[in-house]
Amino acid sequence: MKIKCESIIQNDSLQEECAVFGIWNHPNASEITYLGLYALQHRGQEASGIVSSDGNTFYIHKNVGLVADVYKPHILATLKGYHAVGHNRYSTTGASNINNVQPLFSVGKDGPICIAHNGNLVNAKELRDELAKMGALFQTTTDTEVVLHLLARTIGNWKERFKQVAEKIIGAYTLILMTKNELIGIRDPNGIRPLVLGKLNDSFVLASESCAFDLIGAEYIRAIDAGEIIIINAKGLHSEYFANVRKTTPCIFELIYFSRPDSQMFNESIDRTRREMGKQLALESPANADFVISVPDSSNAAALGYAQTLGIPYEHGLIRNHYVGRTFINPTTELRKAGVKIKFNPVATLVKEKRIIVVEDSIVRGTTLKQLTKLLRSAGAREIHVRVASSPIYFPCPYGMDFPTKEELIANHYSIEGIRKEIGADSLAYLSYEGMVSACPDYNGGYCTACFNGVYPLNYESYSGKFSLE
Ligand code: SF4
């Protein structure tokens, strides 16, 4: 089954990648996993899957659609057992078809195993071609299945086995695996995508973000380290480092846009970090206006930080329709004309005759902002000053974010003044690169900031804009 996900709106924001969730030893493992995936819906809206286990039998349900649509009470009742792994998908590698929906499940020399992945392997095609030459048969077009095949060819304990796999794969990978006897959490040696550990009564839980723990009532314990493998089984929890060389460079975009503001990263809330970005932006590029508005929801915290720093009121000038998603497909010409209005509507009585500062978290193609300034002007706004709480994006992302190509990024075509004209703002300023990094929690190894400065922390020679294993 192919899904077509053409949004009526040319979606200018970066798309989230995937969410992973796992729980070990809980009588309601699949229900808890459902809730965890529900909290992590923002990371992937294309498809969802849960694999549960009672230690002998594995139960699987996967489908395309949002979490609330994929699972119904009678479906969850079939997902028996005390252990479960879940996944929400937004495809960055592999076609949008049901075979690619994770967790992937197979039976090998170790018995049944399932795997859920967030990230992207930059050398997946080469590895897959090599494996295919050796006779490997693939059921999906995902890079995740490449990991499964490589793992099947290793020997030793899990740490040793994953060490052998890690010597071959290059890229971002946060993985949760489940066998009959254990739940395993892995974060790549650069820790590009997040993975956190929590505890729900006597059960350990793993999730992409801590906001999932809040919904299920679990206690946050800590983030899994870059290059760390966590093995949870009947004996408890065991942690080791599978990577000899670890250079932690988490994705800075998780802080700017991707992660939920109520999640925490590096012992700091994302909300606080985004406010700090807004504060820094205000210090660098103040503007005079009647009030500040955000482009909801991802810019709310930065806009608040900006407004509070300058002592300017913060207003809700744009209302977002939360029910517009990737399921809004095949629009008619009439609907297409509605454009960004389908998603955002200005509060005309508020913006009329006013000088407004619009805070946005980032600019990708510039198409949304261009339409938003038009909307605000037609609602009577007198001046529109755009402030961006990150620096200009010049480079694509090979590590699991659905970025457009280099050619589509507006910063590669225009100067800041050119972008201002293009989006129709009265003034435009971005947060400086230094200001952006300084607003983030101090992190020893630094962050991956490759889409801003082109310094890729991992080899990506085989990367050519978009991955395809078709
Ligand atoms: S290139 Fe950008 S989006 Fe991709 S991992 Fe690095 S910082 Fe994140």
- Enumerate the spans where pLDDT stays under 50 for 5 or more consecutive residues: 1-11, 326-331, 462-470
Radius of gyration in whole Å, from Cα?
22 Å
Q: What is the tally of beta strands? A: 21
CATH topology of the largest domain: Glutamine Phosphoribosylpyrophosphate, subunit 1, domain 1
Number of domains: 2
Write up what this structure looks like.
With 470 residues, this protein is α+β, with helices and mostly antiparallel strands. It folds into two domains: 19-248, 4-Layer Sandwich (Glutamine Phosphoribosylpyrophosphate, subunit 1, domain 1), CATH 3.60.20.10; 268-453, Rossmann fold, CATH 3.40.50. The protein contains 16 helices and 21 strands. The strands form five sheets. Strands 3-2-4-1-10-9-11 form a seven-stranded antiparallel beta sheet. Strands 5-6-7-8-12-13 form a six-stranded antiparallel beta sheet, covered by helices on one side. A four-stranded parallel beta sheet has the order 16-19-20-21, sandwiched between helices. Helix 4 crosses helix 5 (143-152) and helix 9 packs antiparallel against helix 15. The protein is globular. Residues 1-11, 326-331 and 462-470 have low confidence and may be disordered. The structure holds iron/sulfur cluster. The site of iron/sulfur cluster has 11 residues, from helix 16.
